[in-house]
Design a protein that fits this description.
Strand order of the largest sheet: 12-13-14-18-19-22-23-24
CATH class of one domain: Alpha Beta
Mean pLDDT: 81
Shape: globular
CATH superfamily of one domain: 2-enoyl-CoA Hydratase, Chain A, domain 1
Number of helices: 14
Strand content: 15-25%
Low-confidence stretches: 1-31, 455-459
Radius of gyration: 23 Å
Number of strands: 24
Structural class: alpha+beta
């Protein structure tokens, strides 16, 4: 049995955001993780270190200024051990484990943002707001730095504590204060927590000849939703000339869904991604085949219903700093096969695999067990996917210095290809918009206008596009239509593999 894994970044650091998971890895021999018996523990655990731990535990319990129960102490010890490995390894207590399980359906309560600890512990950084959620509709953006929650500074809080302050009952409000790169003053957002039913795929027509698909996250049903959207586009115009796939601010989700989405546009049985780690079970290859993407037995039929035109239709993919994990897998695969041009800025760089290993019926650890590689052997980890054309937003230069990447996280794993001797320099075209600095009032007005245009979350199936104000999307359409690129270019290192 293959060791099933999940591809979700900042999994233990979510605040009402989507974490999809269909299969948990269990600690048994058939999936490559064998139970550890007492003899193995005796042979592998250093006795002196264990004795020191026991002493610290006892001293803390007996002499700390306040009474501390055993559960809190032990959880803190486990958290510290795992959190110091990398940003994504974590202990899941009963509440965390339950929340993770509930999110597999794509229905959950919260704000709808993916967050990470800012390097230097100065705040909590928004990696991406999930499209259509309360945070997104309120105007929260990728790169925002949360500095206060209900007026309380987050600088002195752990990431888990900050997240718990943002969580709460459906219908209750929370005020988050953010620092934004293009804003002269901190911005307050009053957000109502909600039960969120997120559709992972939205679609529309940019004009009669060009289809637009936006994937907001990778859920168990994403491939089926994509099939419906593509069939609808084909029915609208069987002679389509191109497709724009928007993966901006897509924080990832199920690995199997990423494989399925890639398979829609690639030849049958193409290698989509592979993983590599210490254990033999961590060395896996995932192909555009039902064995690797059909999660519940419904995806293969959906895939077979998609017209063959989408295997060859001219295509561009939009990415940004909030494109992470599963969405980076799709971008990397389509780029390696030269199936699509990748447009935007370098992606987040979450290229590690986490395996959820239950400890009991309601607790587990989430442990990084492998790294992802694109079909040509490029590691995504702490590097991301470099676009074929840099198409910036008006704030991209500022966000680059804002450091919204995997590489900015404390204890991140380095890219194993960082010193690749086969790397070569390639010139990459750059398209720049005019820079903007917005006041708090202008930001609020823009957010309010967006909210008025948006349908209710539960009813979202059609993407809301604005070619006038969406610089990246506008240029994606220009490029797919064959319009010439600007002369300006930048030199980026790309693998020669």
């Amino acid at each position: 049995m293959r060791l099933k894994t999940i591809s979700k970044f900042v999994l233990g650091a979510v605040c009402g955001s989507l974490v999809t998971l269909s299969i948990y890895a269990t600690a048994d021999e058939q999936n490559g993780i064998t139970p550890i018996n007492s003899q193995q523990m005796a042979n592998t655990i250093p006795v002196d270190d264990v004795n020191n731990f026991a002493k610290v535990y006892a001293i803390t319990k007996n002499y700390y200024v306040e009474s501390v129960n055993d559960t809190k102490l032990m959880k803190g010890a486990i958290d510290g051990m795992l959190n110091n490995l990398d940003p994504h390894s974590d202990y899941l207590d009963a509440d965390d484990f339950k929340q993770l399980s509930e999110m597999t359906s794509g229905s959950f309560a919260g704000l709808g943002i993916e967050v990470s600890r800012d390097k230097g512990n100065g705040g909590v950084k928004v990696v991406a707001p999930i499209y259509g959620t309360p945070a997104y509709l309120a105007g929260v953006q990728s790169g925002d730095l949360i500095v206060k929650i209900n007026g309380v500074p987050v600088s002195g809080l752990s990431l888990d504590e900050a997240i718990k302050r943002m969580r709460g009952k459906e219908g209750t409000k929370v005020v988050i204060t953010v620092a934004r790169a293009n804003s002269l003053k901190p911005i307050d957002f009053t957000i109502t927590r909600a039960k969120i039913a997120v559709r992972s795929v939205q679609s529309t027509m940019l004009n009669p000849d060009y289809a637009y698909i936006r994937i907001t996250n990778f859920q168990a049903d994403t491939s089926n939703e994509l099939a419906l959207a593509l069939n609808k586009a084909y029915k609208t115009n069987p002679h389509l000339k191109g497709l724009v796939l928007d993966l901006r601010d897509d924080p990832g989700g199920l690995l199997q869904s990423a494989v399925g989405v890639s398979g829609v546009f690639l030849p049958k049985d193409s290698l989509v991604v592979y993983t590599d780690g210490r254990l033999a079970s961590a060395k896996q290859k995932y192909y555009a085949s039902p064995n690797d993407y059909d999660i519940d037995g419904t995806q293969q039929a959906s895939m077979n219903s998609i017209p063959a035109i989408f295997k060859t239709l001219p295509m561009v993919v939009l990415v940004n700093q909030g494109t992470a994990s599963a969405s980076e897998i799709v971008s990397g695969a389509l780029q390696d096969y030269k199936r699509a041009r990748i447009l935007g800025v370098k992606t987040f760089g979450k290229g590690s695999v986490q395996t959820v290993i239950p400890l009991s019926k309601d607790t587990a650890i989430k442990l990084t067990t492998a790294l992802y590689y694109t079909p040509k052997g490029r590691s995504i980890q702490a590097e991301g996917i470099k676009p074929d054309v840099i198409i910036q937003s008006e704030y991209s230069d500022i966000l680059d210095s804002w450091d919204v990447t995997e590489a900015s996280l404390d204890h991140h794993i380095d890219n194993p290809n960082a010193l690749d001797k086969n790397a070569k320099l390639e010139s990459v075209p750059i398209i720049r918009p005019a820079k903007q600095i917005m006041t708090q009032e202008e930001i609020k007005a823009k957010a309010d206008a967006k909210m008025k245009k948006m349908p209710k979350v539960a009813d979202q199936s059609l993407a809301q596009v604005d070619l006038k104000n969406d610089f990246q999307l506008d240029w994606a359409l220009n490029i797919i239509e064959g319009k010439p690129l600007p002369v300006e270019s930048s030199t980026l290192a790309k693998s020669a593999k």
